[in-house]
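#help-structures

NK: newbie question. if I give both the sequence and a SMILES, will the prediction place the ligand too? trying with NAP
OV: yes, paste both and it writes out the complex. here, I ran yours:
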Amino acid sequence: MKQICLSQPASLDQLKLVTSSEPRRPGPGEVLVRVRASSLNFHDYAVVVGRIAAADGRVPMSDGAGEVVEVGPAIDTPAMQPALAAGDRVVSLFFPRWQDGAPSRAARIGVPGDHIDGYAAEYVTVPAYALTRQPKGYSHAQAATLPCAALTAWRALIVEGPVQQGEVVVVQGTGGVSLFALQFAKLAGATVIATSSSDEKLERLRQLGADHLINYRTEPKWARTVAELTDGEGADHVVEVGGAQTLVQSIHACRTGGHISMIGVLTGVEGKISTATIMSKNIRLKGITVGSCRHQLDMIRSIEANALQPVIDGHFPLERIADAFRHQESNRHFGKIVLDI
Ligand SMILES: NC(=O)c1ccc[n+]([C@@H]2O[C@H](COP(=O)([O-])OP(=O)(O)OC[C@H]3O[C@@H](n4cnc5c(N)ncnc54)[C@H](OP(=O)(O)O)[C@@H]3O)[C@@H](O)[C@H]2O)c1
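OV: that's the protein plus ligand as structure tokens.
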């Protein structure tokens, strides 16, 4: 079977297509999956360029979707999902060990494509609990966009928000997380203020349902515009994916008593912020790392009920994984980039 492996020191030029032996037969509690698609996340990019350390030979990519080929002997543990069978269409979990309840240190260990081998492979043998069903009617490519980007947006707004009808949500840029956040916010009946560095992308955001648009290149102090658009009050929720350089604006853009979902690090991991403003505005600043199996199952039901379609920018074959990451690196994409496997 074919798979992609990292060689250290990691870089895009070090992503190697390897033909390896047949996949391992599933043991007790495991399933063998024919992977059909994966999708790129900023996290995967950080792994393949060496910003997040991974073992030599690691198979990258945290997202995977495909069908079950073979089921190993069952193990007698309580499971929150029906037993899998050959032919079932499945999608991966970012945190396989986080099944339910509050996040814990132990639940955050075992991320595919990082701590353990991921989904840039034709076949994987994984514990059944590392997978959920796909939304009915989804293609494998659509399903592969969900485990990291969509679930993070879902948790930020629906679980942790939780966003209410008529509230105002700010989403930043046009990457995977932000476009799912826009879609979930609109499903919840919110008003969405969306930012982008590109006027052309802003027009596409409008077509997706964004109510107000801000070009953060031409308006670097975009919190002022958010204030104007909200009669001086500010937004109820800010989905913060920029990190160090955008948090200052997010704090100013947030209303008193509002909520900032601290998700991304696109502009860096450390910065200068006004802790006094967070305090005086009574802002709830909540760190988010993706979500649990329970969250993913809830999100899938909502996707089905609302016929939500992910925004896919384009597809690359597995063999062109480095080109796919170069496309992501260029920031020309709008939504998710898919790897067909
Ligand atoms: N904590 C978690 O659980 C979690 C989960 C998923 C992702 N993340 C993080 O969230 C961030 C986004 O991830 P992603 O996969 O959605 O990335 P992505 O698809 O690669 O998003 C890139 C887009 O972000 C926008 N952007 C870049 N700099 C920006 C800025 N200063 N202000 C506003 N937007 C900016 C750009 O949009 P325009 O071209 O429109 O300007 C760019 O196209 C990353 O830092 C990632 O690590 C965290």
